[in-house]
C-alpha cells in the first residue's frame, strides 16, 4: 500500500512537471507564441484576475446557470424517471422516444435555444436542463427498477407502502444509479453552461473566454487563465459530488471499506 | 406463557383468539405462467392446518416447491387455486400479523439503515411512537441475544448476527404467525445450532406460531412439533409426521435420543424415495 503522503507528493509532482513542460515549450518557441502564452504569464494573468470583481461575477453567472439547470433538469428527471420506473407499461411505451432523444447532442439544440431565448440566462438553463435530463432520466428508471426482489418482498411483509416505500426502499435502492448519473450530469452540465456562454453569448466564464480571444494576442494569457478557471471549476464540482456520494452512500458496497482502506 | 425472559413481556396468549387454526390450507395449487408455453406446475395439491403456538417444519427434496409454497402461504404470491386462510380469512396480500424471515439476510436487511432503524421500520408503519419504538428495539435485540449493536449497519455484522437482527425485526411487531424460509442455510454449523435454540426460546417467549421451510431433516426434527413432507414438484403432501420428542429440547440431549434417530430415519426415507 502506497502511503498517503507519497501519493499526494506524486500528484503534486506530476502537476508541477506539466506546468514546467508548458513553460519550457512556450518559452523556447516550440509552441507558437501567437497561440500559446507562457505558463508564467498565464499564471500571473490568473493571479491578477482572481483579484478582480469581473472574474468572480463570471464564475457566479456560470455556476448559477449550472446549478439552476441541474435543479430543473435533475428534479424533472427524478420525477419522470420514478414514474416511468414504477410502471412497466409506461416504461415500455416511452423508452424508445427517450433513447432517441438521449442521442441528440445537447449542442445540436443550441441554435434552437438561441432562437427562442436569445443570449440569456434562460437559454443557458434550457441547454443545461435539456442536456442532463435524458441521460439522468434513464439512470433513474434503471435505479427504480433495480430494487432487489428480496428487498421488495421484505417491504411487502413489513407493510411498507406508498410514499414511505419510495423513501425507505425505492430511493435508497436507486441511489447508487442516481449518484453516478448526477456526478456525470454535473460535469456535463458545467460544459453545457460554458458552451451556452461561449457560443450562445450568455454572460459567464465562456463569454469571458470569447471576449478575451476577440481582443487579440495581448489578451492571450487572460484567455488561458479563464480556460484554467473553467477547468478548476469542473474539478471542484466533480470533487464535491464525489464527496457527497461517499457520505450518502457510505452503506453501499462500493464505499464501505474506503475509510478503513484509507487508514491502512 | 407467564415467563418473560430478557425483559420481554408476552401480552398475547396464543390461544386467546379463540378456536380455529392460525393457518388453514386447502387444495392449494400453484402454476407458473399458466396458459403459456412455459407453463410449470410447482404445487399440485397441498392441504394442512397449523394450530396456534405450533412449530411446523416443511421439508422435501430440492426443487420440491418449498419456497413457492411459503410465498403462497404468506400472501406474497397469489394461488392458482385452492385456499389459504390466515386466522380464518383469505389473503389478498401479506397480512399485518404475519412475519417472514428470508434465507438471504444480507439482502433482506436494508443496508442503508442501521440495525435499530431496520427493526424500527415495521413499528413506524404501525405508528408506534418514538419512545415505545426505542424500547421495543432494545427488547427484541436482547431477546435474540444481541446487545448494543443498534447503531451499527447490517453488513458490519457476521452472518449469524445479521440473521438474529432479521428475526428481531420480525418479532418487533409481534406477529401471530412467523414464516421462515431456510433461515439458517447460509450460516456455519455452530451458528446454526445456536440459532435453532434461539428460535425455540423465542417461540416460547413470544408465543408465536412458526412455519419453517428447510431442506435439513435433522433441523426439522429438532425444531418441529410436526413435519410436513412434500413430494418432488409438482408438490403434494406426502406425509405429516408428528414429532413426539420431549421439550425443552437441547442439541446434545435431543439429537442423541433414539426417537430422534428413528424420526430422522423415517423422514429421510420419505424425502429420498421417489
UniProtKB/TrEMBL annotation, chain A:
Major place of residence: membrane
Origin: domain of life: Bacteria
A biological process from GO: transmembrane transport
Cell compartments where the protein resides: Cell membrane
CDD domains, A to Z: TM_PBP2
Domain ABC transmembrane type-1: 55-245
One GO CC term, this protein: plasma membrane
Gene3D superfamilies: MetI-like
Keyword Transmembrane: yes
Keywords, sorted A to Z: Cell membrane, Membrane, Transmembrane, Transmembrane helix, Transport
Keyword Transmembrane helix: yes
Residue intervals passing through the bilayer: 65-86, 98-119, 125-144, 190-211, 223-244
Membrane topology: Multi-pass membrane protein
PANTHER family: ALIPHATIC SULFONATES TRANSPORT PERMEASE PROTEIN SSUC-RELATED, ALKANE SULFONATE ABC TRANSPORTER-RELATED, MEMBRANE SUBUNIT
Family assignment from sequence similarity: Belongs to the binding-protein-dependent transport system permease family.
Protein name: ABC transporter permease
Origin species: Rugosimonospora africana
Automatic annotation (TrEMBL), chain B:
Molecular function GO labels: ATP binding; ATP hydrolysis activity
Cross-referenced Pfam families: ABC_tran (PF00005)
Domain ABC transporter: from-to ranges: 23-257
Residue segments, region Disordered: 1-20
Alphabetically ordered keywords of this record: ATP-binding, Nucleotide-binding, Transport
Annotated PROSITE patterns: ABC_TRANSPORTER_1, ABC_TRANSPORTER_2
InterPro entries: AAA+_ATPase, ABC_transporter-like_ATP-bd, ABC_transporter-like_CS, ABC_transporter_ATP-bind, P-loop_NTPase
Name of the protein in its database record: ABC transporter
Origin species: Rugosimonospora africana
Lineage: Bacteria, Bacillati, Actinomycetota, Actinomycetes, Micromonosporales
Name of the gene: ssuB
